[in-house]
Write a structure and sequence with these properties.
There is one protein chain. A hairpin with a 7-residue loop joins strand 16 and strand 17. The strands form four sheets. This protein has a five-stranded antiparallel sheet with strand order 1-7-8-9-10, with no helix packed on it. Strands 2, 3, 4, 5 and 6 form a five-stranded antiparallel sheet that branches. A four-stranded antiparallel sheet has the order 11-12-13-14, with no helix packed on it. By secondary structure, the protein is mainly β. 9% of the residues lie in helices and 42% in strands. It folds into two domains: 100 residues, Beta Barrel (Lipocalin); 101 residues. InterPro entries: FG-GAP, Integrin_alpha_N. This is VCBS repeat-containing protein.
């Protein structure tokens, strides 16, 4: 009886944590566009101290007239922001954006995922500017991005959800603004918009991944437990699905 109550309590905690992280994460994401949908105005925002003055700044990706643009607004001590003059060109439809120090120089960088599957890296120069460093990877599409140190080497890694391929791809950071791997985790609900978050869901001190399937009103989700080496195993006891026969592949 006690064990059953404990399991129920743990499941509820995981459920609340997964939904909250996936739907209210400070990391930016937006709903992907299907190929037959028109361009929409997308707003993605991340926060970091891009000019190292101790005040939070903003980086924002928007879409206007069919083109994505990345802008940086520097925070002021009075709580206002000053937008920099340079607008950085992005892809047609930016869908997710995260910030971390990907090249380990002590300055925040920005990674933007586009609907076309490209992952574009922009390196911070410490003066409030973001410099394009090219595509670090290309997938079928990008829905959301999670950042964590999956292999515990002190360097930020990323996981990227891809609705076209119905996978989550895991990339390990090299510390030089590049990534290795791209190992796919197959997802069980093709055609949905999987949003992901990284957190330690089983309390072992290692980042895990949660995948929330965006087309399910009951917040169906899967949890993949990390092994500390960059690999993941699905944890059915921490996952939840209302109807296991729903969204089966044709």
């Amino acid at each position: 009886m006690i064990r059953s109550v404990f399991r129920l309590g743990l499941w509820k905690i995981v459920f609340i944590a997964v939904v909250a992280l996936a739907l209210m994460s400070p990391r930016a994401w937006a709903s992907p566009l299907h190929e037959d949908e028109p361009d929409g105005a997308s707003g993605l925002t991340v926060m970091a101290d891009f000019n190292r003055d101790g005040i939070v700044d903003l980086a924002k990706a928007t879409v206007s007239a069919g083109a994505g643009v990345l802008t940086v607004s520097l925070g002021r001590s009075d709580g206002t922001f000053q937008e920099t003059e340079a607008d950085i060109e992005l892809g047609r439809a930016p869908r997710a954006m995260v910030t971390a120090d990907f090249n380990q120089d002590g300055v925040p960088d920005v990674l933007v995922g586009d609907e076309d599957g490209s992952l574009k890296l922009f390196l911070g120069d410490g003066k409030g500017n973001l410099v394009a460093a090219g595509d670090v990877a290309r997938l079928g599409s990008v829905v959301s991005i999670a950042v964590a140190d999956f292999n515990r080497d002190g360097i930020p890694d990323i996981a990227v959800s891809d609705w076209r391929r119905s996978t989550v791809a895991v990339f390990l950071g090299t510390g030089k603004g590049a990534f290795e791997g791209g190992w796919p985790l197959p997802l069980r609900m093709p055609g949905t918009m999987p949003r992901i978050s990284a957190a330690d869901f089983n309390g072992d001190g290692i980042p895990d991944l949660a995948v929330v399937y965006g087309d399910d009103g009951d917040y169906t989700f899967d949890v993949f437990v990390g092994n500390g080496k960059g690999a993941f195993t699905k944890a059915p006891n921490l996952s939840y699905v209302k109807d296991p026969n729903a969204h089966c592949p044709a």
